[in-house]
Specification:
Six copies of one chain form a homohexamer. Chain A has about 325 residues and is an alpha/beta fold. Chain A has 13 helices and ten strands. In chain A, α4 packs antiparallel against α7 and α7 packs parallel to α8.
Chain lengths: ~325, ~325, ~325, ~325, ~325, ~325
């Protein structure tokens, strides 16, 4: 069977889930990576209402779509973040935000992540994708000076906050797949190494491989797959296009909006950027990844109704199965 | 006269100023870029005690050292920063930190910057170097999503807080030279463009050009000199060595300590890195910069007593004066 | 409405205009960028015969083709050129060549450019594309030595010759779009800066952006669009493929014919070369360029009947409209 | 007539020739480059049985396939190789292997190459493709030290062994096209120069240009075509994808199997790699190569039934005929 | 104490050891890495004659030179090599060559390596540097096809032959430092990984890091140091200069002699090539390597009497000690 | 004997020759490459006055300076140039300029070149360096279109004008060394190939290799030496520093003055640019060039009195003699 290709619904949460399902099915997607925001999925409601979960499954079945993983980046972000501010208020929902007290937000976000694991289990899904947040991301510039003790404390804070959540994941038979991403505890290669150490390499914590955050940091996404091959729990396809090289556009984006051509890099529709997709898909075959490839469609310079359909064609064409036999076998047959 | 070369005392503030003066003079430096911390310079004390300033001048004269500019990065940082935290407490001094209330710290830092202008005038110096801090640097990752209104507000906050300070600079006939640097309101090319717009291109606000922060962002430091040629008020020489290219070391440094070879880049002694120094020095001649070149010595992998002496030799050799006549004049003579 | 795509008829002037119109319409082009040579357009005839202009419009209408701009590179070339020689004789037509006296040729070429503006107005078109010629291009090698006074005089000569032409453009409500190109007064970034200064940045004089001349000079065509965003009056799509890198093929072409693989670069059908088209089209959206994209088809190694059809497909696929909303709006909806 | 595109049957010799013919015809190939192994072609049988050759021609005709060249890499390899070992036993067939005595194997391999020339003549084909083997390839690392006398002797051994074979080629009016390839006497640019010298530049000995072996050695395949333009007797299309650049994958392949993503390079289906195909096809036009382009399909990471069909589409699209007239002719028409 | 710098005597074995000692001491070297050939060191003689060893130590003392490691590349090479041929005869000495029977040579070479460990112990040295040889290096081109079983057998052969040798090393308290090098069982990154696995990561087997063999294979020597940090037992400084990039010089050297400018790379005097020495020396500090840096001087285009003196100056200047404190400590002092 | 290093006096012709001799001798130069302008050398005077030549030789002897070659770029330039204009008037001298009639200038320039050969012979020198001029350089942009017949005619014009000059060279036993350079008949690799063909590869016409004109055109100066090894008659050392890469500085120099940092490249003092000097000097050894290395000092951003002394140190250090024996000879001694 060819590898299933899904659409992540996070960037479509302004539309009702049924509309997204209808579109995705029409474009040929095999399934959806459901986001826990908008009306797509609500872990709190699911915890209280079994019919809610069944209704979602029925909706997917109506459009002949599968679900292999669900995502809750927005609430995961709040688990470790510091500061907690207006940016979080805009994305975590009222139930988590509550009175906005930072520590309360973090704890309610942690509760939602536990509920997300429970929801996954009810949906028959073994993977939850998301972000972790980070207490030390804000120190990325290293000035004013930051001691290594502060960095160490940040990794410890992450472990302290996520271990109890991962205990619930273990109870549910579900794995968490962290997306390596600036703003998070693991945002590049060496922070991923350190993060896995911090959590004792426990199996409940793995990675959602999204190469779009690697290419502009010049982390090789292919080698990343090989080195962390036992922790690649999910694959998201988003692309990044570099616009570095004119001496003025910088790696850090200059606080410019997406799609501004003065940014040193930008997210673009899969296949329009600099991710070496074919090498990546071939390496996924090599490491034995058998899960879905999920298109996370983000491109502020392109109409998503055109782009999402084009993207599945691109992925379908390149993410081919490996052959059964080596070519040079023919020489001695 | 060849261009004067000075040593920035900021990274030597653990030593008494006299010891730094003795060392610098011994290595052949023409002067010092005095830091407003350690026992090197205290703007509050200078405001209250005229003899204090004279004593500093006497000390410099004793070692036959000149002063062209003074620096107050650490307190400038606190003027706009948000959050204000333990990192600031470690560097702003008790007078500015006070009870640690964030807004109070910012206002006391602003007061110190005004005093720094006054101190410069008393020293007979027309340039103060420093940082601005920033209310929006922390949003550099653009996730959780940040609206352009928030970015706009950050630039406005900068203008609101610095315009009154710059009024004092104008009164004193002194200019502020901001060092373009991550953590600050202007950290790359396009943020510098925007920052100068925010402040209405007023003459009191210019730049301390330090290329070490540009090379790892892939901003061309030579073109930067040309484009901002009317705002280059001071030059700091610090170098950065790139260690990108093995697929694992990332541009963002991985929260690793200075001198860790897994960082994608590192500060190194001038001449040991990837700054195109010769092109820079030639461009300084072209734009008519006549001020000092100041060695800001930072290299966590090298002994500073060896490095600072080597650095002045490197700069002296490359920062040559321009000739009087063009070579092809000889063809028709 | 999607952006219109036109075909420049200059390289098809050996064919009757009606044949070109039939072909272009058949391939799906939305219009033609009409050349003022061959039988396509004659500014002198148009000046004398109103029916001539109407007949051209009728012909276009018959094939359902629009016209947004007309071109007169060949005669514009003669306005400033020095020397005027057999190369000009072959391209300017008898009316301009006359007795071949150089200054006379220049002045008659200037007259034709004025007539071209008048013709544009009659056609209901607000843009004339072309070349300027240059009295100093021939000094590009800087040897035998050339003083800056000679260079200055060249820019002044350009202004003196073109200002009267541009006065007529202003009268007609038409703009001139100079194609930045070797042999011309503006052939790269800094000469464009200087040219616009020479002409006092008058609005009648803007640019026809054709990136094929930039990539082999290593001028970034995307940054060029941004920096001259208020002077981008028209867009021509021609591509250039680099063949540099074997240590023998040089940047200057070695006097070799087009399509010789030993040239360091060559013009090729749009999409077969090294122009970063997608970044360019996205930047055109950013700077608010709303005019046509015109395919200037040149490829000495490919059949034009195959290439011109392929090229419109390539451009149509990449030159997409910008979306209405940002993708991350969905996170907080 | 467009240039014919053939499929090399060497990597399909595990299938009966009729099955390969059926597949190739179905995908649109114009002909086959027949391999002298499997049941595809047997030079010994052809030498003894004229009906055998006719039956092959009939089979091709049945599927409307042409033959322009035949290949015998596997037996040519044994002519000069040293050592002769189990690797040769697996590929040379029983007739050549015999008792496995090395010198006997070499001489029987030479006999088969003579028969291959005779077979080509009977098939009406003027080109035989193959390998030469090499007595000195094994010294490629230059350690333990190897004197230039040993290298010289290797080239002489090649000439001594191949000149008698080429005499038969001359008698038959057939040319040998050596594929430049590691393991062979000529494996890169300078060894090709030296090999042609060794054989006195005799016309019977030319080259099968296969760029896949050049790109990972960083030999420019386009310049190679130009420099050896009078010896390009055949063209094989195989592609190579580089995976160098993460600091760990090496140029020499690390003894890893094909399709292992840790190899520094890998053979891939034509169009999936780093060969600059379009420049190559254009140069083939320039040097007047009029023979077939033959797809040698090798990709251990892709199903050959998908790949071989895709490959002919890729080649057909890019390997276009040159035009009749230059584009700039239109300017003066 | 600054890190000791030694000279490897292998390329000076045509001179009497005393002459080499006199030269090295004169140039300022701190010691010698003694080669087990020429008259420098003879493990067989040392095994039989205790006075022999003392005489060598006396000679070193006379010139105030230390010894930290001894080398026996030439005989180690023969332990696993296949074929054994005239190249080995020229370098292994009569005692090992004997009657030239391949298996006999291999076993006598193994005996010499055991004696070399014993000699090291007598000299008070804990490291023996050398090569391993390889039964599978000759298959590096992967054609004629080589199955993975053959590769596996090659690593097993290595382990079978070297484990008994390493047992003697363990008995003597001496470690073997294999130089990663083409022709050997470990010649790049991934073969080093596999080799260490084959030998069960036993402590007696480590690495002599010589970056000159890595740069032309595009293996990052800095990352190599970090990844194998617990197995870096010795450091040899040899440099390699790349001459790739003109489309004709290839990575494999074209069987051309050293110093021929058509080779794609060449060994050159330390500091004249493309090894990133400063990054390497800094990483040696980071991983805590405290041993000597040994100059292995090889440059076929330079006089060694000039080069060896220049090289120690280069190394001394760059291989500096790390500082005691971080520079940003000064900000809060 | 180490290779002699000379100073080209062309850029010092505003000074009396004796002053140049004094300076050069003081800096350690072994000789002078005398320019035929200023008061350094006058071929017309030499033709008429034997004492003139002896006086020059006496002057050189006084400063212990040798002469290996003389130069007459400025008059050679006028032999083929078209147009002849004010630029030539400024450099060819009154004798050649005369009434300024173009054809007359060309012929008188040709006469001076013949006299230059005669002068060389009188000085005991076998090489005259210079330029050829070109009738077709001005067509480098290929627009307005230029037919290949015009290009062909340009090469023929060169041959027609230079063959009679070269006849005189042959009579005198002197060779002409053309400096490959924009503005000349041969300005890059392929034009050099064509130029040598045009002149029938006659021995009297060879090359003055000056890599500064190659690097910015991306012609490999090392491969150039190898390919034209039988025509390298002289070596000039001038360096070029690239400033390409910021998207705005172009390859063609933008009509900007030397030393303007916006030029894409600039001439700089030897050792300050991008010429791979060490590879070049090693290749000079390989091809058996035994003549002088002559420093042509040009750097509009540096004082020549500092630069010329620094340059000889740079060249002396790198242009070393080749060794007598290969390093790996020691392994088997």
């Amino acid at each position: 069977m060819p590898r299933p290709i899904t659409l992540f619904t996070g960037q479509w949460a302004d539309l009702p889930l049924e509309e997204v399902a209808r579109l995705a099915a029409g474009w040929g997607y095999d399934g959806l990576e459901l986001a826990c925001w908008g009306d797509h999925l609500d872990p709190w409601q699911a915890a209280e209402d079994d019919a809610y979960v069944q209704a979602k499954l029925d909706l997917l079945e109506k459009y002949n779509l599968q679900v292999f993983a669900i995502s809750n980046h927005l609430k995961g972000q709040a688990v470790c973040d510091d500061p907690i501010d207006h940016r979080h208020q805009a994305i975590v929902g009222e139930r988590v935000w509550g009175d906005g007290d930072a520590e309360g937000v973090r704890q309610r976000a942690a509760e939602e992540m536990k509920n997300t694991a429970r929801l996954a289990a009810k949906l028959g899904v073994d993977t939850v994708i998301g972000f972790t947040g980070s207490a030390i991301w804000k120190y990325v510039a290293m000035f004013p000076p930051v001691g290594q003790d502060v960095i160490d404390a940040g990794y410890a804070d992450f472990a302290d906050r996520w271990n109890p959540i991962l205990d619930v994941f273990d109870e549910c038979g579900v794995r968490f797949a962290h997306e390596v991403h600036p703003s998070e505890i693991a945002y590049d290669y060496w922070t991923t190494v350190r993060t896995l150490e911090a959590i004792g390499h426990r199996e409940a914590f793995g990675l959602n491989w999204d190469p779009s955050h690697m290419v502009w940091q010049q982390v090789d996404p292919v080698a990343f797959l090989y080195d962390f091959r036992d922790r690649i729990y999910h694959v998201d396809c988003k692309d990044t296009r570099m616009r570095i090289g004119n001496g003025r556009n910088g790696r850090l984006g200059s606080h410019l909006a997406w799609a501004d051509g003065r940014r040193g890099w930008d997210f673009v529709s899969t296949g329009h950027g600099d991710v070496p997709w074919e090498d990546c898909f071939r390496m996924l075959n090599q490491i034995g990844y058998t899960g879905p490839i999920s298109v996370e469609w983000e491109d502020a310079g392109m109409d998503r109704l055109i782009g999402a359909e084009e993207a599945i064609g691109f992925v379908r064409r390149l993410a081919v199965d490996a052959p059964d036999a080596a070519f040079d076998a023919a020489f001695s047959s």
